[in-house]
Amino acid sequence: MQPRTPLLLCVLLSQVLLLTSAEDLDCTPGFQQKVFHINQPAQFIEDQAVLNLTFSDCEGNSKVHYEVSSPYFKVNHDGSLVALKNVTAVGKTLFVHARSPHAEDMAELVIVGGKDIQGSLQDIFKFARTSPVPRQKRSIVVSPILIPENQRQPFPRDVGKVVDSDRPEGSRFRLTGKGVDQEPKGIFRINENTGSVSVTRTLDREAIATYQLFVETTDVNGKTLEGPVPLEVIVIDQNDNRPIFREGPYIGHVMEGSPTGTTVMRMTAFDADDPATDNALLRYNIRQQTPDKPSPNMFYIDPEKGDIVTVVSPALLDRETLENPKYELIIEAQDMAGLDVGLTGTATATIMIDDKNDHSPKFTKKEFQATVEEGAVGVIVNLTVEDKDDPATGAWRAAYTIINGNPGQSFEIHTNPQTNEGMLSVVKPLDYEISAFHTLLIKVENEDPLVPDVSYGPSSTATVHITVLDVNEGPVFYPDPMTVTRQENISVGSVLLTVNATDPDSLQHQTIRYSIYKDPAGWLNINPINGTVDTTAVLDRESPFVHNSVYTALFLAIDSGNPPATGTGTLLITLEDVNDNAPVIYPTVAEVCDDAKNLSVVILGASDKDLHPNTDPFKFEIHKQAVPDKVWKISKINNTHALVSLLQNLNKANYHLPIVVTDSGKPPMTNITDLRVQVCSCKNSKVDCNAAGTLHFSATSVLLVSLFSLACL
Q1: In terms of pLDDT, which residue wins out, 18 or 47?
Q2: Burial group, residue 405, by CB count within 10 angstroms (0-12, 13-18, 19+)
Q3: Vertex 619: Cα angle to 618 and 622 (nearest 5)
Q4: Which residues in 509-531 are b (16+ Cβ under 10 Å) and which e?
């Protein structure tokens, strides 16, 4: 019997080895059941198992890690799926991802009667459960591969497998597409013999959410045997992005006294995670309010929309009683629907309490006093008001109006933009002798209208008493200017007029003395007592001090006040013309050639300082007693010009020809002027008039130029 014991042990040991080998051969890594169906309960209970999942990596499950697509669940190490809190609606589908160093797989939990939350999770992963892609007479079987982003080392790691049940012996798998042989290259690869697909590095869903790859089988020469068949790789989102506020600064305004619940502004944040998951489902809350008076909770933010609204009564939202009309709120956005596990981001919202015109301006006193000297203009008093509204708005800025006591429009009032005071001004000089006192009634309003329940009261009007101070005013000439018309050349001592000046200070009974202020030609004299003006010299209309026949002089009237006051009057003397100027001729020198065929010598013109009819037409004559009759001739051209010509050629010499010119005045004035005529030798267009080496124009050229000039007159 002893020899049989080793044999029996050997047999038993071989059976154990066979059983173990069979077990290893039958082990398939992954979930033993891929899809589960449960009915939607009234509520998932915290820490109560929903179902049990069986996952094996065929290596003892030593380091299995589970991830659930919903933040409300977890999978324990024994494979039980439990709720983290009491929850009712979780959607229609949950996905459980299991991963160990040796295997990785995905299971689907279908909740019958569940409702979508943030979109269907089936849309997120974009595949219909784990059923293979439909094929038409193809032996390559592929299913979408789901890979969580942000996986850690080690790499490469297997993430899926392609099966070809009819693959010929010696054939190979080949993987192509973006992420393999197209940029970004080298992310995925396939074992050409087994069809195992692996990823070589960490994926980022926010960079690329899906990869469209293609699988085919080839022979040893690389020739395609079957395919390509599309293979979709879906990157499962992880909550790796915090919410951020991208549109700041955030500044809102709300009118003081606004009803409770008034919307101030909206603040929304952005989360780069998958918007179809809770990873990007944001909730908002107010973390801090500064200042915290009169209530620490002046505002509320809608957790889903981000709308900030007022929550205090209108009475507390009074800008005039607030410590500071500006509030700063620290707004927090948290993903994962606001769960504690969610990531957060913050921003500052500044809210301004805007002023409305709920306070009318009020004068600081009912009556104001002002004094002003008669004849003066400018600001005489500043009226002060108080207004509790915001100085930067039209609810504070004042507008003043004179409503009584200003019939002559002698006063105006304007607002000082810096102080808001009313600047009352005299714009037309006041006269003490007419009125020594003025009383004005002034009202003040705001630029903006008051709110309906506020009105202007008695304090919005004030009275201004103005006292006019008497000053010594200068006498006033009447009329001013004074005008008189006289002929020039009247005899010295002739009386022109008596000036008249009166003193506006009628109550002071002052005397007036007169004097000359400006007499440019020194022609006048004035009696200091009675103001009679007479001449001290001959008046000459042609004087340079006379302009357009008018001579201007200025006189002073001085009263007997202390100090004396002075008034100025103007005298305009219009001088009538007298024929007291004889005409003169031009030119007075002429040249002519001794052999000239054209015997014309020169064209003479005449001018007269007098006015018409004491000027042209002029009469031109040659003084017959001094010149032979048969040598010279003068002929009239027009009222102001005549032609002097020779009746025969003369020898080279200088000749003096007396010309008589007479105007048309009554009596006429006559002037005799010598015309010097040079008879010159003219050879080859050169003129010799006894001046050796000197060149002259010919007399004929001079005559032609003179005629041309005359024609242009």
Answers
A1: 47
A2: middle
A3: 140
A4: ebebbbebeebebebbebeeeeb
Q: Judge whether 52 and 85 are in contact, CB under 8 Å.
A: no
Both tokens assigned to 350: 């500044």
In this prediction, residue 342 has a pLDDT band, given cuts at 50, 70 and 90, of very high
Q: Under a CB-based contact definition with an 8 Å cutoff, are residues 239 and 273 in contact?
A: yes
Contact present, 532 and 516 (Cβ < 8 Å): no
Q: Closest Cα to residue 231, out of 159, 171, 172?
A: 159
SS3 content of the chain, % helix, strand, coil (to 5): 5, 40, 50
Residue 13 has pLDDT above 50, yes or no: no
Return the ∠ at Cα 473 (arms to 471 and 478), rounded to 5°.
155
Question: What does DSSP assign to residue 236?
Answer: E
Question: Residue written as tokens 């130029």?
Answer: 705
Task: Give 356's contacts (C-beta < 8 A, 6+ positions apart).
Answer: 255, 256, 257, 389, 395, 451
- 672: tokens are 């005799």
Q: Which tokens belong to 91?
A: 């959607």
Q: Over 70: is that where the pLDDT of 148 sits?
A: yes
pLDDT at 615 over 70: yes
Q: Which residues contact 12 (CB under 8 A, 6 or more apart)?
A: none
Name the helix (H) or strand (E) containing 290. Answer: strand 283-290
Find how far residue 2's CA is from the centre of its chain. Answer: 112
Q: How many CA atoms lie within 13 A of 269 on its CB side?
A: 28
pLDDT at 538: 93
Name the 3-class secondary structure at 255: strand
Tell me the two tokens of residue 234.
Answer: 């879906």
Judge whether residue 122 has pLDDT over 60: no
Give the pLDDT score at 687: 79
